[in-house]
Predict the structure.
Amino acid sequence: MRVVAENAEGRRLTEFVLKHGDDPSDVLRRRGIRPIRPIVATGTDENLTVRMLAERGGARRRHRRSRPPKHREGAEVRQRVAAYAWVLSSRGVLAAEYHRNISGGRFTLPGGGIDPGEEPTETVHREVMEETSQKIILGDLIGLHTTRRLGKRNGALEDFHAVRLIYRAECPEPTDPVVIDVGGSTSAAAWFPYEKWRDSPWTPGWRALLRKLPIS
């Protein structure tokens, strides 16, 4: 995935290919550039480009290389770019329940990995339909976040870098959510009342991520 930072006048400040384990905002700050917000993501999984609004300013941050996670040797390195939606309707906020038990909550935003040849906006529409059966109107790209995890997957050690694009969306005609892609990572879906969404049973990772999004 390529990241292009530009200022309010559309002038390109820098660009780079996102390396495994890197966070776009951290890379920009190390280059003396302050990230403001994502603008748009274009292209398919193989040539995806994310444009970010940014500005020059502030001292360059010195990058301290963190020690590799324990037992990283021999781990499978995998980067996954996925797209999700913060969907609002008259019934509240749309959420998808993860099929595995997670301490602290099991709900995430609907969405998932970008398929080969697919653009992020196509991914969001497909995933929301598969996981919740809702038709949405997609809005702006409001988030670009990454996490890195070292753990077991199918019995093998994996060094996993998750890159998440998050869009704002609305559902004009909300219905009772139904999971269409039965057997996938989503076991159920629900509408959370908007006034109570902060207290809803999100997974710890998604709860932390939602706090960073401009959704209030």
User: Anything to note?
Assistant: Helices lie at 24-30, 120-132, 204-212. The longest strand covers residues 137-153.
